[in-house]
Amino acid sequence: MNTQILTDTAKAMMADDKGLLAMDESHPTCNKRFAKLGIPQTMEARRAYRELIVTTPGLGECISGVILFDETIRQQKQDGTPFLQVLAGAGIIPGIKVDTGAKDLAAHPGEKITEGLDGLRDRLKEYFQMGARFAKWRAVIIIGNGLPSRGCLEANAHGLARYAALCQEAGLVPIVEPEVLMDGDHSLERCAEVTEEVLRTVFNQLNSQRVVLEGMILKPNMVLPGLTCPLRQEVKEVGIGEQQYQVRLTDQPLDEAQAVDEVADATVKSLWRTVPAAVPGIAFLSGGQSAELASARLNVMNHRFKAQLPWALAFSFARAIQQPALETWRGEESNVQAAQQVLLHRAQCNRAARRGEYTTAMERT
């Protein structure tokens, strides 16, 4: 294991106010999104959509790395150029999702465990030889009546830590993703409590497995109330310097009525309490938030706290960057250029959010 290379790669992934684009949807997930828009659920349709993404002009100005799926890392443009070659030409670091999904955790009703450790060492070696330089593993934590259990937290944290150690052995930077799901009626305060317990457990396991913290990236959830939380608060205008903006919530779930500054405060407080300063970057998942709200919340965190934080606050969004472009494309070749412009716009909004310079006025340009 070359610690310096791992550290340099992790720093490069967080450099220049850029972020990560997650395009690692499994076949069922991708097909489900296609079906909602009337797009054929075929390998060729998936390939064409991913070509649209990786060939977006200017994408490398905002995106430092992309997370691929096993099918995607092996795919090519229509002219035969491998996607990995396209990404390298754009200065984008390729990564790969390596877990095999969340399954029911035995003896723990309602809870999940992420699988995929069997054979992982050999798979990581192959992905490194193909050109991947980082990997991702997602664990899901459910908040409910008596949940999460201690057994679930320990099992998922141990899996994340073993995965991370194997990645670093293979020369890949591990993205460690413990996601506290938005599903449920829990409050913002309950989400903060669980998120902190999850992160403490994860970092205890990472230290036990001798993971080099300088050579990893954390991908957590933002601290949010549950989707069916009955406690709705009024949206208030958020002032940032001389800028004033307000997030429009009329068509959003009740949880998104939480003011963006309250979410920012709760999220940063939880991270301050749990994440070691040695970690170079925190790249948030969007977790079902709307594209605009994910950008607004990341923006407030960076505007208010960036100068005080030991780690970079970045993004590793999937739907919050992709969905508007997918809805524009709808499987039509004639819509590719327009969809790419929409994709680039969302990437630019999130780069601005990393700088603390995003406003909703950007959505009208």
Strand content: 15-25%
* Strand adjacency order, main sheet: 8-7-6-3-2-1-12-11
Question: CATH superfamily membership, which one?
Answer: Aldolase class I
Low-pLDDT runs: 232-258
Structural class: alpha/beta
Q: Shape, please?
A: globular
Number of strands: 12
Give me the CATH architecture, please. Alpha-Beta Barrel
Helix content: 40-55%
Number of helices: 12
Question: How many angstroms separate the termini?
Answer: 47 Å
**Rg of Cα set:** 19 Å
Describe this structure in words.
This protein has 365 residues and is an alpha/beta fold. It has one domain (3-364): TIM Barrel, CATH 3.20.20.70. Helices cover 44% and strands 15% of the residues. The protein contains twelve helices and twelve strands. Strands 8-7-6-3-2-1-12-11 form an eight-stranded parallel β-sheet. The protein has a two-stranded antiparallel sheet with strand order 4-5. α8 (188-208) links the parallel β7 (173-180) and β8 (217-218). α10 runs parallel beside α12 and α11 runs antiparallel to α12. The longest helix is centred in the middle third of the chain and has 21 residues, at 150-170. 48% of the residues are buried. The model is unreliable at 232-258 (pLDDT under 50).
Give a quick rundown of the structure.
The protein has helices at residues 3-14, 27-36, 43-54, 70-73, 83-89, 120-130, 150-170, 188-208, 260-274, 291-305, 319-329, 336-355, and strands at 19-22, 63-68, 93-97, 102-104, 112-114, 134-141, 173-180, 217-218, 238-240, 243-245, 281-284, 312-317. It is α/β, with parallel strands linked by helices. The longest helix has 21 residues, at 150-170.
